[in-house]
Design goal:
The chain has 282 residues and is of the alpha/beta class. Helix content is 37%, strand content 14%. β4, α6 and β5 form a beta-alpha-beta unit.
């Protein structure tokens, strides 16, 4: 097991804001990817306070090697109150930019697309002028399901490639690299800002990362995040390499050089981390 370098260590921060935010979420039966994915930024984000809401329960139907979301239980029933509960919570927290993601629900006919659409509309109906970003699964390549989400007019559609094509068999065994690029192309074709993200440190080469960035540029992707993979559980894939801050800077510079408008690259960068600042400050 590789030793965690100093630059890859991040203190959790004060416990009180974390517990307070969790209490707000539990009161309305809401889930966050911040908790389920054991994100290292949870202390910082919950202290703001902000969160990435995770719809459709907290049980995933896929077995991605990097993820700590529960895969062993039976997926939960779709909660009809979830869209309105998220909207009310976002308003209570004073959010101006909301990120909605989900577990992958291959057991549902539409992959959960309708719940995404209902949540987008509930938020926009509740909070005037808010920006809604969705981080969606690939819906198994179902254009009809994807269009349900896009027709609800999210401001940003994020779909993560997660890693380079050669590592898909171990990192995303039930996904397809080209299919995921297709999700981004279709979002862009509908006039929605397209965003994606990858992890570094799983065994990819620098040239493979640059190839992914070129593919994302070719798909019309507007924004890309790149962060260090940190092993969330003992059952998850091991870290192959801790990428230096300089390399992350090189990736960011390269992405911008080839014409990707927004690139955010660093050890603790995650697809939803500082999402509102990525667009406003880049």
């Amino acid at each position: 097991m590789k030793r965690l370098p100093a630059w890859a260590k991040k203190p959790l921060g004060p416990a009180k804001p974390i517990h307070e935010m969790k209490a707000v979420l539990r009161r309305r039966g809401l889930h966050t990817v911040c908790e389920s994915a054991r994100c290292p930024n949870i202390g910082e984000c919950f202290s703001k306070p902000t969160a990435t809401f995770m719809i459709l329960g907290d049980v995933c139907t896929r077995t991605c090697g990097f993820c700590s979301v529960n895969k062993r239980a039976r997926p939960l029933e779709v909660d009809p109150n979830e869209p309105s509960n998220i909207a009310v919570t976002a308003k209570e927290l004073g959010l101006s930019h909301v990120v909605i993601t989900s577990v992958t629900r291959d057991d549902l006919k539409d992959g959960g697309a309708k719940q995404f659409a209902l949540t987008i509309r509930a938020i926009k109906d509740t909070i005037s002028g808010i920006l809604v970003e969705v981080l969606t699964p690939d819906f198994r390549g179902d254009d009809e399901a994807l269009n349900i989400v896009l027709n609800a007019r999210p401001d940003i559609l994020n779909h993560n490639l997660e890693t380079v094509p050669s590592l898909y068999p171990i990192v995303r065994p039930q996904a397809d690299y080209r299919r995921s690029l297709g999700v981004l192309k279709k979002a862009k074709a509908k006039g929605v800002m397209a965003k994606s993200g990858i992890m570094a440190g799983l065994g990819e080469t620098m040239e493979e990362v640059k190839e992914v960035l070129r593919d994302l540029k070719g798909s019309g992707c507007d924004a890309v995040t790149i962060g260090q993979y940190l092993r969330p559980t003992r059952e998850s894939l091991e870290v192959k390499e801790y990428i230096t801050p300089q390399v992350f800077m090189d990736y960011e510079r390269y992405g911008k050089e080839i014409g990707i408008k927004y690139v955010y690259s660093g050890t603790f960068v995650r697809s939803s981390y500082n999402a509102e600042k990525l667009i406003s400050n880049s």
